[in-house]
Specification:
The complex is a heterodimer of chains A (698) and B (484). Chain A is mainly alpha-helical. Chain A is built from 29 helices and two strands. Chain A has a two-stranded antiparallel ribbon with strand order 1-2. Helix content of chain B is 75%, strand content 1%. Classes of the chains: A mainly alpha (698), B mainly alpha (484).
Chain lengths: 698, 484
């Protein structure tokens, strides 16, 4: 290949390798990895993910060099029925490559972190054998996510969509036979089930959208759909986009289907960071951005999307204030931040949404992984204590159940875990949107867009949500890192090893400078995405930035007044509990949404199932229809006719004896098989005679 | 002997030379494992020579032998089964203390006979090939002497084989009487020329002669009612021999049947098709029904092999219909491949469990295999499913093609019988699976590299090929018979 050709064709032909690398990694680990040491397994999986990242970088370079024109990379034929022609084709454009870079980049860092994290986790949970399984699942996730973001049609996207859903299920239920505290229970497994079932509801919406597309357009390939869409009735497009929104609310955890995400924290922390914060849950945002040509056709649908996102952002942020589990706070924070992104892409501010998606991937992965480091630090302290006591002769040891994720057990960790502390601070400032951290720029762009585009309600909802965001993050910092340890384990917490903190430092660096991706005035990301999306450069609105920064600082100040000035004592209730009363009880209990769903949907569903099984199927169908009507009629007939004309025994014997006859027949034939050559020869002769007799006599 | 003659017979000639040299060399070889390796090398080279002939077709030795796509396909299959047969025997005969060098020589001689059978274009040649393949098999069946079971097996096979051979010879004589020739090409031209008027052609004699040839070959492939030797011989012979016999002799017998009937006797189809129909149906019913009451795995598999002969015979029933013939020949060949693969795998598992003095051959000895040796049990499950004809195995695909060919020929009821007997067969095949997985027991197996490779490889291929069977079917379809 000549150099000139290289510049025109670029590295696009490498696109399938973003999937092949993790697939190869998982195959090696799954089939050959039985005797590999942990290090080899972990690094192999990380390298597989890193391979994808390198390919993503090459694709990005090729795109940049070739002027950003979208490329399709054909891999293999898939479905060719009638007029429908679908292939395994990768779509390489600026939008998909942005996602690929985030997925494989953050994914690789989390893989490396997991080498250290899972090493300890599998030991605390006493099942070393699951180490390999974890990395197989993690690579499978990368592969599925790459199919999702790299697909050239809604169907291929859906394959990845379901693939990541499966991986999410497998990894939430990774410790399927215990709960988050390691006690034997089905809690984790139920959490996985909840995530799966909730996502199925969303997928149902996505599927309907796909069917509508196929019915009205005859294709599900992106370019064909977008080209045909303007010719359709707007009602059809509204239906397609809103059904798609149901899928988005499922996968990206928006109202009303967000309930699975907090429970998904049952998975190991790297999973929470990778799947349930940085990548998979952003698939919905990507889907809307990808479908931008459809959404921009129907402003009413856009408004619904934007409001869904904005309401979710505020709603989840209030719940986060009342949580005690370090990961649960971050989970609700993720829902809230996803709300920001969905609101942004709903308003048509696709660049702002994607910008926030990228920066959020950095700082939320950082926060989750740091939280994992905190949790393991407490576990280490706890085990250290247990060993110590056993040594001293306290044989009962730590029988009480210790929750290493409960912030009420923490406190004062800035002294014992200084590296994690500083990393956490960086993540918090980025999330709270403090200048000049990454979150400031991306969140501000969303707010500015809402303000300018006239989505006033959205603007105010998001601004208040931003206030809460800064508040609950401040609360978390004060509770976890300041004050005095509220538990022995926290006092003896130990810092995490370099293999865990090194990826965190990279993420921290990105959280600090990530805003440079799309600085006002430079608009790097805007210019990049412009090749794929119809965008308008977001303007920097000084007043908006000042208001949000002031609110964030105010929120942190308030949180200091409540939690920082007078640190929480062990056993003391949350200081907000008394002044806020029932409001705080609502936040603490997630506004009773889960209970509501149980009362309204799940219990009704169970009742219906019980009704169908017990009343309809058993009492009506079996007891009445089969037993009374069919069997009764049959008995009645048989009493009249069969008793008179045929022996009951004859019928019985016929059916019971059918098998018996077969067996008897074979036993009889066996009797001829007596072992004598003369009988065998006679049989041959008889055969010959009958054949010849037939041929001559017929 | 012209150059063309030489090319026609090259693989067989080479193998004959090789086996003669091998017998001599064996005198000086201490470790008989080396003889096995040399035999395998000879087969591999012969396989290479055979594959080099792909695409050629020719008549050689004045019309005695024919080389065409069909013969190449069949010979390839035969040579592969020879290799598998050596792989199964390698450890087995050492373990059973019957490791003698002649074993491999006899095996190769038998393969030479089988390969000749695939190329025979003259009835005399068919008979010679039949004897060449049979006599080494008689000896091999009795190879475990002085074990009385094995000796009995060999003698029985020999006596009945000679008896059946007589019918073939008598049939050939009658056909010669009817047409004045034993060469297929000349028989065909005589039959076609004398269509309307009485020449030298005598249709009645021809018909009876053809029926007698059918009897003799029916004996070889173990079709009911010429099957009664099968269980006794299969049970008594050393298991590795049984494995080879069950596949090799069937392939060769069917190859000869296909060529002779499809080429020389299509005019007789009105009379012979019903006979074949009945034989096929009887064989399917007989084999499957009697297999149910067997408790010895070798005997059960013997009846199963009878039943499968019945399925392959289905492919012959529409032999007079030129439209259906190509499809049914292809289906028959495909089924032979499927059966060969599954057959060697199954017997491999049997060998793995067999102990000295005929122990470990009851189906009850398989109890607990699933827990103790999951890979082996999984392989056996694949084979049992394949023999039953269930997805995802080659057996299902093979049956599908066969039934389709029969349906295209218009024999609906035969297909129905095929389906019903397959259902019956599930009863005893799945019993093995149930025994392996659901009964408590202490199954013991031998670990031998080549045995394990053959078994697991066969299982993997049985599943894999069934996922994309089309290429194999196309290969079988392209392996056409050369017309004269």
């Amino acid at each position: 290949m000549h150099l000139s050709e290289t510049t025109t064709t670029g590295f696009f032909y490498l696109a399938p390798w973003i999937v092949f690398f993790p697939v190869i990694g998982l195959l090696i680990n799954a089939f050959l990895g039985k005797r590999f040491p942990e290090k080899v397994i972990g690094w192999l999986a990380s390298m597989a993910s890193a391979g994808s990242f390198v390919i993503s970088v090459l694709l990005a370079y090729s795109l940049w060099a070739s002027g950003g024109h979208a490329q399709s990379v054909y891999v293999a034929p898939w479905i060719h029925i009638g007029n429908l022609a679908l292939d395994w084709t990768f779509r390489v454009d600026t939008l998909s490559v942005t996602m690929m870079l985030v997925v494989s980049g953050v994914g690789t860092l989390i893989h490396i972190y997991a080498i250290g994290y899972m090493h300890e986790d599998v030991r605390f949970k006493h099942d070393v054998g699951r180490y390999r399984r974890f990395f197989v699942f993690l690579n499978l996730f990368i592969a599925a996510m790459m199919i999702l973001v790299g697909g050239d049609s809604y169907l291929m996207l859906f394959v990845g969509w379901e693939g990541v859903g499966l991986c999410s299920f497998l990894l939430i239920g990774f410790w399927y036979d215990m709960d988050t505290l390691g006690r034997s229970s089905w809690a984790n497994s139920n959490a996985a089930k909840k995530a799966f079932v909730t996502n199925r509801i969303g997928d149902f919406g996505f599927l309907i959208a796909g069917f509508l597309m196929f019915w009205y357009i005859g294709s599900v390939q992106f370019d064909e759909v977008f080209a045909m869409a303007p010719g359709l009735q707007s009602g059809v497009i509204v239906a397609i986009t809103l059904f798609m929104l149901i899928g988005v609310t499922g996968k990206s955890a928006q109202i009303p289907l967000y309930v699975w995400l907090p429970d998904a924290m049952a998975g190991p922390t790297p999973v929470s960071a990778l799947i349930h914060a940085a990548t998979m849950v952003t698939a919905g945002v990507y889907l809307i951005a990808r479908s931008a040509p459809l959404y921009t056709l129907v402003p009413e649908a856009q408004f619904i999307v934007a409001m869904t996102g904005a309401v979710t952002a505020l709603f989840a942020a209030t719940i986060a204030v009342g949580q005690y589990d370090i990961k649960k706070v971050l989970a609700y924070s993720t829902i809230s931040q996803l709300g920001f992104m969905v609101a942004a892409v709903g308003m048509g501010a696709f660049v702002a949404g994607m910008f926030h998606l990228v920066t959020h991937a950095f700082f939320k992965a950082l926060l989750f992984l740091s939280a994992g480091s905190v949790i393991l630090g407490l576990e280490r302290g706890h085990h250290h204590l247990a060993k110590h006591e056993a040594h001293e002769g306290h044989h009962e040891g730590h029988e009480e159940v210790f929750d290493p994720g409960d912030m009420r057990n923490m406190g004062g960790l800035r002294k014992t875990m200084p590296v994690t502390f500083w990393l956490y601070i960086i993540g918090t400032l980025a999330l709270a949107g403090i200048f000049p951290f990454a979150g400031f720029w991306s969140k501000d762009e969303i707010l500015a867009d809402a303000f300018k585009e006239g989505y006033t309600a959205v603007y105010w909802l998001l601004t208040i949500a931003a206030f809460f965001t800064a508040f609950y993050m401040g609360r978390q910092i004060w509770m976890v890192f300041f004050g005095k340890p509220r538990h022995e384990a926290a006092a003896h917490a130990e810092e995490s090893p370099l293999i865990m903190t090194a990826p965190l430092m990279v993420l921290a660096f990105l959280s600090i400078v990530g805003g440079a991706l799309n600085l006002p005035g430079l608009h790097t990301l805007t210019l990049w995405l412009e090749h794929t999306l119809e965008v308008h450069a977001g303007e920097f609105v000084l007043s908006v930035a000042l208001i949000s920064t002031a609110l964030a600082l105010l929120a942190i100040l308030i949180s200091w007044l409540i939690y920082g000035r007078k640190p929480l004592e062990a056993g003391q209730p949350d200081p907000l509990k008394r002044p806020l009363g029932f409001l705080f009880t609502g936040m603490e209990n997630k506004w009773f949404v889960d209970e509501g769903y149980w009362a309204v949907f799940v219990n009704r569903y169970v009742d219906l199932a019980r009704f169908l099984a017990d009343v309809v199927d058993w009492r009506f169908w079996h007891d009445w229809f089969h037993e009374k009507v069919i069997a009764g009629t049959y008995n009645w007939l048989s009493h009249i006719f069969l008793n008179r004309y045929a022996d009951q025994k004859g019928i019985d014997a016929f059916f019971n004896g059918l098998g018996e006859i077969t067996r008897k027949l074979s036993a009889a034939t066996r009797r001829v098989q007596n072992g004598f050559v003369r009988s065998y020869a006679l049989a041959v002769l008889l055969g010959v005679v009958s054949i010849l007799g037939y041929l001559i006599l017929k | 002997m012209t150059q063309l003659d030489f090319i026609t017979v090259l693989p067989i000639a080479f193998l004959t030379f090789w086996v003669c040299a091998l017998l001599l060399a064996d005198l000086f070889i201490k470790r008989k494992g080396l003889t096995a390796v040399l035999a395998a090398v000879g087969l591999a080279i012969t396989l290479g020579l055979t594959l080099m002939q792909v695409g050629r077709s020719a008549l050689g030795f004045n019309g005695m032998l024919v080389l065409d796509g069909f013969s190449i396909f069949v010979q390839t299959l035969l040579l592969l089964s020879g290799l598998l047969g050596i792989a199964l025997a390698y450890g087995y005969i050492r373990r059973m203390k019957i490791e003698r060098g002649e074993y491999y020589g006899l095996l190769l001689f038998s393969i030479i006979g089988m390969m000749l059978m695939a190329q025979a274009a003259d009835l005399i040649m068919v008979f010679l090939a039949l004897e060449t393949l049979s006599i080494p098999l008689y000896v091999l069946a009795a190879f475990a002497r002085p074990n009385p079971d094995s000796e009995e097996s060999g003698l029985k096979y020999f006596l009945l084989g000679a008896f059946a051979g007589g019918f073939v010879l008598y049939g050939i004589a009658l056909i010669y009487g009817a047409t004045g020739s034993t060469q297929l090409a000349q028989i065909i031209s005589v039959v076609n020329l004398s269509g309307g008027f009485e020449g030298i052609y005598n249709p009645t004699l021809m018909l009876i002669g053809a029926a007698l040839v059918l009897v003799g070959l029916g004996f070889k492939v173990a079709a009911v009612p010429f099957h009664m030797w099968t269980p006794d011989v299969y049970q008594g012979a050393p298991t590795a021999v049984t494995a080879f016999m069950a596949a090799g002799a069937k392939i060769a017998g069917f190859a000869a049947l296909l060529r002779v009937f499809a080429l020389a006797f299509p005019t007789l189809s009105a009379d012979l098709s019903p006979v074949l129909w009945v034989i096929s149906a009887l064989t399917m019913f007989g084999g499957n029904l009697i297999a149910i009451s067997q408790t010895n795995i070798k005997r059960m598999l013997a009846y199963s092999s009878i039943a499968h002969a019945g399925y392959i015979l289905m492919a012959f029933v529409p032999f007079g219909d030129p439209k259906v013939l190509p499809v049914s020949v292809a289906a028959g060949l495909f089924y032979l491949v499927a059966y060969t693969l599954t057959n060697f795998g199954t017997w491999g598992v049997v060998i793995a469990l067999e102990k000295a003095e005929g122990k470990g051959l009851e189906i009850s000895d398989y109890a607990g295999l699933g827990r103790k040796y999951p890979a082996l049990a999984a392989a056996m499950t694949v084979f049992m499913l394949s023999l039953t004809g269930m997805p995802p195995t080659l057996g299902l695909v093979g049956k599908f093609y066969l039934f389709r060919a029969v349906l295209e020929g218009g024999y609906v009821w035969l297909a129905v019988i095929g389906v019903i007997t397959s259902l019956i067969s599930a009863y005893y095949y799945l019993r093995v699976v149930v025994t392996m997985y659901m009964h408590e027991g202490e199954a013991q197996t031998e670990r031998e590299f080549w045995l394990g490779l053959t078994t697991l490889g066969a299982a993997v291929l049985t599943v894999l090929i069934s996922l994309t069977p089309q290429w194999l079917f196309i290969l079988a379809k392209d392996a056409v018979l050369m017309l004269f």
